[in-house]
Structure prediction request, 290 residues.
Amino acid sequence: MKVIKEISAIQDISDYYRCIGKKLALVPTMGFLHAGHTSLMLRAKDENEIVVVSIFVNPAQFGAGEDFTKYPRDFLRDYHICEKSGVDYIFNPEGDEMYKKNNYTSVIVSNITEKLEGKFRPGHFTGVATVVTKLLNAVKPVNLYLGQKDAQQNAVLKKMIQDLNYDTKLIVCETMREDNGLAMSSRNTFLSPEDKARTSVLYFILNEGKRMILEEKINDANTIKKHIAKILKEHTPDFELQYYEVTDNTELDPIINLSEFEGEVLISLAAKAGGTRLIDNIVFQKYRNE
Ligand code: AMP
Prediction:
């Protein structure tokens, strides 16, 4: 496994593999790797000859007052995890390699970025779209592996890839969870053991929403939201629920009448537990109620 720091070097490596007909995949990460990341790497290795993992904590996707400087970093630990997962190259550019002096260009995806997370993290998805554009142009992968954990990010990048005519295929892998259902995340390291145990409520309320839709045939998302609020008030009144939305999984628009809806339903949430902001979601197929 090799560590590459320069954009021109990873471009040359990518060109070489394309030239000899070997499929190259990219798994973009911000490091401090966990089993969610390794599941992406293993799937990528299974489906491609060459796997590049990028490790870059992207300053452009953090807002003022967010945790850019505090974000956990441990390159040596990440190196060993990548090596064990069969990764071929780690692309680990410095900040001034990715964002050269007098960088005037950003990639703005409209509409879909203003919903859900966008209401709480203005500018976040411009940072994401810009860095992923840079990564796609640096690594030039055939396949791009992302986790279901970041559902809106996937929807935004899917649109961006279509709109900008990238010939990279996006593959979304399922969310890896702790034993109590908490979605794995580098930020979980900020949770106290007590709060971490109590986060089981988040996966529970996602599944509770799904159950109400599919089994109780509830038509109105507000009924579900009221029930969820009651559960949270009883079990974790100190957790701050920022949103809990029932939307379609493409445009991320609220589903007004669930009984009429047919397609993929996304239930997504953001909550703060002891100061740590967590996001999670589930997605499932629904057919029109007979
Ligand atoms: P991050 O390092 O948090 O930016 O995540 C890098 C990639 O790993 C993104 O595509 C995430 O969706 C994915 N990822 C993060 N957490 C998980 C998880 N628990 N299960 C599966 N994929 C994940």
Observations:
- The first helix runs from residue 7 to 19.
- Residues 29-30, 36-37, 39-40, 146-147, 149-150, 173, 175-176, 183-186 surround adenosine monophosphate (CB under 6 Å).
- Residues 197 and 242 are 20 Å apart (CA to CA).
- Strands lie at 2-4, 24-29, 50-55, 89-91, 143-147, 169-173, 240-248, 263-273, 276-286.
